[in-house]
Amino acid sequence: MPLEKPAAAPPALGRLLADLGGVYAGNALVAFIFAASGPVAIILAVGTRGGLSESDLASWIFGAFFLNGLLSIFFCWFYRQPLVFFWTIPGAVLVGPALGHLTFPEVIGAYLGCGLLMLALGLSGWVKRAMEAVPMPIVMGMVAGVFLRFGLDLVYAIRDDFWIAAPMTVAFLALSLAPRLAKALPPVIGAMIVGGVMVAALGRFDAAAAGSFGIVHPNFYAPQFSWRAMLELVVPLAVTVLVVQNGQGIAVLRAAGHVPPVNSITAACGLWSIPAAFVGAVSTCLTGPVNAIIAASGDKHRQYTAGILVGAFALGFGLFSPVFTHLLLATPRAFIGALAGLAMLRVLQTAFVISFKTNFSLGALVTFLVTVADVPIFNVGAAFWGLVFGFAASWLLERDDFRK
After folding, report:
1. What is the CA radius of gyration of the chain?
2. Is the pTM of this model over 0.70?
3. Half-sphere exposure of 71 (CA within 13 A, CB side)
4. For residue range 195-226, what is the model confidence (pLDDT) as tens digits?
5. Nearest CA to 201 among 327, 332, 42, 342?
6. 28 phi, psi to nearest 5 deg
7. In sequence order, what E strands does 83-211 have?
8. What is the full DSSP assignment across 51-97?
9. How far apart are CA 400 and CA 82, in angstroms?
């Protein structure tokens, strides 16, 4: 079996406590707040647009944080590396349009299919070949297409609720212009704070909607397997995990001097996506931004402690997911739209740059246009067909790029 073994034995409790320090605790806190701000707003924006109930959203957030927090703690301890797992953000965005013509149980069936596919790839050792099957510009053309709606929602939020969305955007830009300050207060978190202040100052917080609190009682869903859901979601979801999210996370960790266990990571994403699916959470992935934050400073041999702390914070957030879901849903729609849009701004920029910078630009353009058009064919959503038609366009008209 091609699963990697750890380079050293997992640390005992005494060693773990000795390795923990203020730098790692601070990095863990910043990384977790980042994960619990904009990305959660994206879940809420996708879910509410897709007609999911508040109970569905709380259960999704429980799976995304609590279950993935457990996996993160184990991997960070076992491999002594910062290996934090959360959920595929582009995969979550893919689900939004799918919920317009698929039932949630059908989507959950696709989550399970994706999990089994990734588990098989991880156990077989074919991950690298799978990651290279579709050129990255074409993949990112799909990502740009599904993310575009969040950039537009930011513009609409400023138009429709100026005194909430505009100050959030100004705060984001001001912090982005001050790199030193942005290290202590990431721009997305600053925008969330300013937005919260404006919501409170304008009396726009719906206290009645935030009146119910408590520990989560996750929903357990019976999956429904349908060919249209499998065709539409399984391969695009796997691509977002293996190529977009895991590829980014692995690159970040390698740049920091770590040797991430690629096969084990892939198998874990597949295996853990299965229980996560039963509570309504989208597929598990190795996170890029969170691991980048906790691997940015300190001794690399002690950075795993920050990952364990992020996992511990995620357990608490997941257990009390109804509280956070209530609080965020009690804010105006523009607050969620602006926060999600700002969180996706740099990701959307990166997707466009990778798509159209060099090779496979025509295939990427075709993929982008088909995805944005959002026209299903044979009841299969546009993201899948975007990959198909984009790859076909490059295969026919950009053969030299394949040779390169």
Report:
1. 20
2. yes
3. 28
4. 999 999 999 887 665 555 678 899 999 999 99
5. 332
6. -65, -40
7. 85-87
8. T--HHHHHHHHHIIIIIHHHHHHHHHHHHTS---EEE-HHHHHHHHH
9. 39
